[in-house]
Amino acid sequence: MVAQENYREFDELVSTRTTLVEERLDALDERITALDEHFSEEKERISAEIQERHSELMDMLNKFKEMFQLECDVRAEREAAVKADMDDHDQDVKERFEVEAEARESVRIEGVCAKMFGIPE
Known about the structure:
Layout: H1 2-117
């Protein structure tokens, strides 16, 4: 009888412990499932944020490229205008220099002729 009583007590103890272990395993399984769901949600949220930020950055980059190209075009126009102004100025200076050189040459020729022929200046 004592052996049966001991066997029954041992069986109850094993059964109680088994139930506790199963309850803990169920609780762990629920926590793992909840964590898996949380990680899946976070993964999707982070992926969506990355895509959104990527789109924002690409838009910013494209706008910057457009603005940069516009600035390059405007700068090229300004440089062309400055070059045209400088070319015009160079041509004007060249023409004035030629006129001045001719005038001086003419005055010198007149001076030489005046000295040669005795004409007062």
